[in-house]
Amino acid sequence: MSRLAIDYDKCILCGQCVEACPFNALELKDRLEVNENCRLCGICVKTCPVDALAIQRGARATADLDSYQGILVFAEQRGGILASVVKELIGKGRELADKLGQKLYVVLPGKDVDPLIELLKQYPVDTIYAYDHPELSYYRAETYTAVLEDLIQDIKPGILLIGATQVGRSLAPRVATRLRTGLTADCTILDVKPNGDLIQTRPAFGGNVMAQIITPKHRPQLATVRPKVMAPSETALDYPTEVIKRKIKPEMLKSRTEFLSIEPKPQETSITEAEVIVAVGRGLKKAEDMALVEDLAKKLNGMVAVTRPLVEAGWASYTQQVGLSGRTVRPKLFIACGISGAIQHVAGMSSSEVIFAINKDPDAPIFQVAHYGLVGDFYEILPALIEELDALKTGSK
Ligand SMILES: Cc1cc2nc3c(=O)[nH]c(=O)nc-3n(C[C@H](O)[C@H](O)[C@H](O)COP(=O)(O)OP(=O)(O)OC[C@H]3O[C@@H](n4cnc5c(N)ncnc54)[C@H](O)[C@@H]3O)c2cc1C
User: Is ligand 1 within 6 A of the CB of residue 328?
Assistant: First the structure.
């Protein structure tokens, strides 16, 4: 592991490094000491007038990479309900584990977790590690970080997958910092090299490039994955899953946050949960015409989504925006009306089961991702479609 090394023969206890450190990581006692706040930024090394400080990097790096094996998935739950992204992480984790010939583990912190263990046992997981305690009932940064650190130090997984949810986005960087390893946030594609390096792909520079990131010198490799980007795992009812209930040490439950209560917000239906989406883009001429799209969505029991320009124009709310800087959706049917198919939009809808595109321009890029396409004016096509649906409903067709 990388560390700040102090050459006590050279150190003259001048205190310049203590003054310079922005993290209060150096203390002058009988001698100069470095504490856990050190971020290895190197400012002290540059400040020292007698070259008594040096950062020793990567001692662990190549030494024990191979001792880290297996894929660990964080099973996020809220009030006993498993986050839907967990099944997606299990699906991807199983695929990566099989490719490497390694095991798939799940860590489940919570309170009264037996029903969740039974649920997780329906999936192809080798071992479920459960931490069951009232103090773990809801997410708190310190306690959950301590749980993950405890397990990782023990079982040494090569890869840790966490959902890019509100909880995951808080937890993953803390775990990565605690373990002094790398983290790639919001991955959209994951693969592995035969040597165990995780190939983490995510959009960068506003989606104009897909960056591939690896963490070749540290383990475990941490990645967060946006919900709905990866396919959920199939069930595997006969899979021989081992369940291990872990001992909870009192120090793991220490937290500066006092849990008082949870006040649930009224449940909003989100386009991420919709099975049918009718989406519209800049082909829409005026805000009032949204009624046409809403009418079709209603007839199909679906929801309306939009491209970013419509949100910017104030014609729709941000919660309806699909794409890189909006929501990722995975409906059974996605109808794209007057949408060109820009990469930033496609990033949020290309995993839909069936994509049906209507566009006046036969060369519009949306037709490259669409399963079915109609070249034409949606102002003419949607009313005809609605009429057909009405006729089907009344039985006149
Ligand atoms: C950093 C960054 C992040 C971004 N994030 C997002 C994002 O999250 N989501 C998003 O959507 N965009 C995002 N964008 C914007 C994106 O680049 C595109 O500008 C946007 O998706 C284009 O929207 P559009 O397809 O509605 O409009 P246009 O590209 O203008 O396409 C309109 C299409 O409608 C067709 N058309 C016009 N009239 C009709 C008609 N009557 N019938 C049928 N077809 C018709 C045209 O042929 C055309 O293909 C982002 C951009 C950047 C730089």
Answer: no
Summarised one tens digit per residue, pLDDT across range 247-303 is 999 999 999 888 888 887 777 789 998 999 999 999 999 999 999 999 999 999 999
Q: In this structure, are 111 and 245 located in the same domain?
A: yes
| pTM value surpassing 0.85 | no
Structural domain contains residue 259: no
Is residue 300, in this structure, part of any structural domain at all?
yes
pLDDT digit string, tens, across residues 90-120? 999 999 999 999 999 999 999 999 999 999 9
Ligand 1 binding pocket includes 308 (Cβ within 6 Å): yes
CATH number at residue 188: 3.40.50.620
CA 276 from centroid of its chain's CA atoms = 24
Say how many Å lie between the CA of residue 116 and the centre of ligand 1: 42
Q: Which numbered atom of ligand 1 lies nearest the CA of 339?
A: 25
Q: Does 132 reside within a domain?
A: yes
Q: What is the whole-number distance in angstroms between the Cα of residue 381 and the centre of ligand 1?
A: 19
Going by alpha carbons, the residue nearest to atom 53 of ligand 1 is 206
Instruction: For residue 171, give its domain range.
Output: 65-253
Burial class (CB in 10 A: 0-12, 13-18, 19+), 301: exposed
For residues 203 and 342, membership in a common domain is answered with no
Answer whether 70 contacts ligand 1 (Cβ < 6 A): no
Supply φ then ψ for residue 277, to 5 degrees.
Answer: -130, 130
Q: Can you tell me the distance from the alpha carbon of 248 to that of 128, in angstroms, rounded to the nearest whole number?
A: 15
